[in-house]
């Protein structure tokens, strides 16, 4: 029944007629209410023709004044989402505002190329660490999204109960209670991995590094999606490998025909891929396509390094399966971490490298030997009884809400002709600006206004995506964020 639909409550405290959000910024209560209802409309929870809860009921449900609800409904009327019907109430308008088109797919690359050293990557990451810059360029989610206090309590308790953990080095295999917890979670997601098929690493970055080293030698060619996560490019560069970029759709992931042609025409040694909520596109590969991808790579007996770091950040009801779920002959090297879901500061990740496990285990030993046991034990205890599923649910809601608000903000302030990806999970939006716009110039102009951006050039070996931008939606929405989007929109318009 419509009257019982309640917009998600933000994790924040009220102060006067404003709410102090987790990152310390304040927003008007009516604006927050309007935003959360708008999300329900855009997601289709409230459909055209639905009556929204009456002002009185909404005021009771949200514990806000009648005036606040009325103001929120008026805002949504002005935005074109609601209409007031005399003597009846507020209804979702038959045709909510239409969305802009999605980004276009890139052209295939003629031949593989070595990756050059890109100083811009280091610069974007350096500014991501500066708390006085708006972090549109950063992939690191805001710390307020994580249960840091609870983790700190468990960490303290683990260290007090067994101080010897601080005096011991971890094993290259990982701490068994943690590998068991991770295996249990994969089983729930439909991926039967045994705990001893997993190795614990220092973040997903180390997992990707070790897996790639295990199956290649300098000069080899690796097929990757384009645009590509710049972390992939950095790893490929550091190992002196060549990258072959394969066109990838912002909806369904890598193009299988293009991938087949590229493999036939080049001596590809491995594929690095992100089927679930790709960074930067946000694409999600459907299950049938994952099966086809697996079969295709099987024809050439190619190893696949799968980055599933965003797999748990789905907005839909069920977690999408990683490609590993189809792996019957040990060719998929699954890599992930808690970096986007629980504890970026711990930098604990893992890999299930299939038939290459012995090689990866040896490489882990020479790379960092082991990952701190005190951190692994803390995570194992959190996963066992810290309410991880509950935390993931609210994290996903927050990511989804941020993404909607960012998308709406950009559609309001960015020029017509801009194209946006529509991710079903994760926290990025890939943006194709009008062709005239130079994203590097935009970056320089934005930096002067204390806004850090990630220009498209970062995501390719070739000089592509000059007019594209990846926007990270990992910070909670606030008036400052909206103002920064408006500034970015003004700077873009100045270039046209
Ligand atoms: C797709 C992807 N993979 C891997 C990483 C790195 O993960 P970690 O911090 O666990 O090394 C990131 C970080 O932004 C990422 O976006």
Can you summarize this structure?
Strand 12, helix 10 (287-299) and strand 13 form a beta-alpha-beta unit.
Describe this structure in words.
By secondary structure, the protein is α/β, with parallel strands linked by helices. It has 3 domains: 2-92, Orthogonal Bundle (Arc Repressor Mutant, subunit A); 148-386, Aspartate Aminotransferase, domain 2 (3-Layer(aba) Sandwich), CATH 3.40.640; 390-494, Aspartate Aminotransferase, domain 1 (Alpha-Beta Complex), CATH 3.90.1150.10. Helices cover 39% and strands 16% of the residues. It is built from 15 helices and 20 strands. Strands 6, 8, 9, 10, 11, 12, 13, 14 and 15 form a 9-stranded mixed beta sheet that branches. Strand 2 and strand 3 (26-28) form a beta hairpin. Helix 5 crosses helix 12. The longest helix is centred in the last third of the chain and has 26 residues, at 388-413. It is globular and about 70 Å long. Pyridoxal-5'-phosphate (PLP) is lined by residues 139, 203-205, 229, 231, 274, 279, 307, 309, 337, 339, 347, 349. The site of pyridoxal-5'-phosphate has 14 residues, from helix 7.
Tally of separate helices = 15
Mean pLDDT: 90
Approximate strand percentage:
15-25%
Give Rg in angstroms.
23 Å
Q: Mind telling me the CATH superfamily name of the largest domain?
A: Type I PLP-dependent aspartate aminotransferase-like (Major domain)
